[in-house]
Amino acid sequence: MSGILDGLAGLLERLHVDEGLRPILSLVIILAIVFGLIGAGLWGAFRARWISRNTAAFWLFVSPWIVGFVIFTGGPMVYSLVLSFMDWDLIDPAKFTGLANYKQALSDPELGQAIKVTLTYAVVSVPLQTVLSLGVALLMNVRVRGVNVFRTIWYLPSLVTGVAQSVLFIWVFNPSYGLVNGLLRLIGVDGPKWLFDADWALPAVILMSLWTVGGNMIIYLAGLQDVPKSLYEAAEIDGAGRRHSFWHITLPQVSPVIFFNVVTGLIGAMQTFTQGYVVTHNGGGPSDSLLFYVLYLYQNAFSFFQMGYASALAWILFGMIMVLTALVFRGSAFWVYYESQRPKERRRRVHAS
């Protein structure tokens, strides 16, 4: 591959192409060759009647995503896996060390703190977001005049995320002149130091996560509006009240939506980085109370220049997320309802397996 790139660089140099444009032009030429080969192969398979026209068109249109995934996602993932077995400081050549990075992770007290902070954040914030966003969706599902305005108001904060959200809440939770402590003083309460206190820093970040419940609210609202009205009408005829209708109709019907949001929310919570980095200026907070896993991974890679150890941490995180996601999928058999399959039937299959 390096020979091909060198050859392209030499060709572009002979064509007097600007040096700054040579890397991107080389990539464009390689991609053009790859897509040309894919197109020629599909055309040949179609002419030989190995595949249909629709199948060839499908693979042709999906090929940009596949190529992009292999180059920009799959390739770096494989490289990081190889790098996790090496010692590399970004300057000296990488040295193969076997499982040394993974053994180091087992005895790293900072890693234990990072896992504790991340799991605590995920276990607390995800249920809170689920309950709050579902509750708001239930309110926004009521047909009253002007409800669309309230839906928009609830959704708008979801547009302010990442760094902007973190900077905003640094001011909101400021112990001296922040909005939260200002409101607490009005009722005679001396508020905590929030982000500057080891006991309150993580709860403050968990409260920050509730800022974007409007995004999940929209998804829950779509699920609620998809519940058949006939089910509520039949329950009302049978004498069921609102509480029973919610418990036996609404929740089972939207349980797949809840399941989706819980899984995506859990994966996102395990990869929390921006809040800890921006709020604490890459320091992990007071007494490492905001030392999230990905923040610690970042520190090892770009502050301590232990790229091999950081790659090992990345794969350990990948394994943790896979295990937690598998547990949630396994547990979904007991509470997620699908029209084509009832939970009891899914539980039997789980026990049988």
List strands and helices in order, with pairings.
Blueprint: H1 2-14, H2 22-47, H3 53-83, E1 86-87, E2 95-96, H4 100-106, H5 109-140, H6 147-155, H7 162-172, H8 179-186, H9 201-209, H10 213-225, H11 229-237, H12 242-270, H13 274-280, H14 293-303, H15 307-331, H16 343-352
Antiparallel strand pairs: 1-2
Architecture overview:
This protein is mainly α. The protein has 2 domains: 2-83, no CATH class; 105-352, MetI-like (MetI-like fold, Orthogonal Bundle), CATH 1.10.3720.10. It contains 16 helices and 2 strands. A two-stranded antiparallel ribbon has the order 1-2. Helix 5 crosses helix 10, helix 5 (109-140) packs across helix 14 (293-303) and helix 14 packs antiparallel against helix 15 (307-331). It is globular. The model has no long low-confidence stretch (mean pLDDT 88).
Quick summary:
With 353 residues, this protein is an all-alpha fold. It folds into two domains: 2-83, no CATH class; 105-352, Orthogonal Bundle (MetI-like fold), CATH 1.10.3720.
Choose one word for the global shape. Answer: globular
CATH superfamily of the largest domain: MetI-like
Instruction: Give, in spatial order, the strands making up the sheet with the most strands.
Output: 1-2
Structural class: mainly alpha
CATH first level of the largest domain = Mainly Alpha
Low-confidence stretches: none
CATH fold node name of the largest domain: MetI-like fold
Query: In the CATH classification, which architecture of the largest domain applies?
Result: Orthogonal Bundle
From the alpha carbons, calculate the radius of gyration and give it in angstroms: 26 Å
Mean pLDDT score: 88
Helix percentage range = over 70%
* Strand fraction: under 5%
Record field, number of beta strands: 2
Number of helices: 16
- What's the structural domain tally? 2
Question: How many angstroms does the end-to-end distance come to?
Answer: 45 Å
What characterizes the major β-sheet?
A: 2 strands, antiparallel
Oligomeric state of this protein? single chain
